[in-house]
């Protein structure tokens, strides 16, 4: 009986992880499509128009690093030529991200590289 509940628990965690991953994908897509770091309605996030330009993402950047400790650490997701990553919370598990913006390989292709690292 306890194995059954364990399997249900694992399945619900996988589903939550999948849903969380989808929400992260939607959030990233919304931020990049809107071209703004705070793509919310005026009623939910009032705007101080004098400094709103600082939150705009035009032109689309080459890399966007989202520092959110409420979302699991994720590796680089390339959306429209923009590498998006979340290093997670260093204080929780001593993990961090090493981002190399330009790297060439043997075929002389220019790419970026993201490495997830952890201090043991």
How would you describe this protein?
The chain is globular, with a radius of gyration of 18 Å. The protein is an alpha+beta fold. The longest helix is centred in the N-terminal third of the chain and has 33 residues, at about 1-35. The chain is built from two helices and five strands; from the N terminus they run H-E-E-E-H-E-E. Strands 1-3-2 form a three-stranded mixed beta sheet, with helices on one face. Strands 4-5 form a two-stranded antiparallel sheet. The N and C termini lie far apart (about 35 Å). It has one domain. Residues about 1-15 have low confidence and may be disordered.
Q: Name the shape in a single word.
A: globular
Secondary-structure element sequence?
HEEEHEE
Structural class: alpha+beta
Overall number of structural domains: 1
Overall mean pLDDT score?
A: 78
Distance between the termini: 37 Å
User: Could you describe the largest sheet, including whether it forms a barrel?
Assistant: 3 strands, mixed
Quick one: how many beta strands? 5
Arrangement of strands in the largest sheet: 1-3-2
Note poorly predicted spans: 1-13
Helix content: 25-40%
Number of helices: 2
Radius of gyration: 18 Å
The proportion of residues in beta strands is 25-35%
């Amino acid at each position: 009986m306890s194995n059954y509940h364990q399997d249900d628990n694992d399945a619900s965690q996988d589903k939550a992880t999948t849903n969380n991953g989808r929400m992260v994908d939607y959030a990233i897509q919304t931020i990049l499509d809107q071209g703004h770091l705070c793509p919310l309605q005026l009623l939910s996030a009032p705007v101080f128009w004098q400094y709103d330009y600082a939150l705009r993402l035009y032109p689309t950047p080459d890399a966007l690093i989202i520092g959110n400790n409420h979302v699991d650490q994720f590796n680089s997701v390339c959306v429209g030529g923009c590498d998006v990553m979340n290093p997670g919370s260093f204080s929780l598990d001593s993990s961090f991200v090493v981002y190399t913006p330009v790297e060439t390989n043997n075929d002389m292709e220019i790419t970026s590289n993201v490495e997830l690292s952890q201090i043991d």
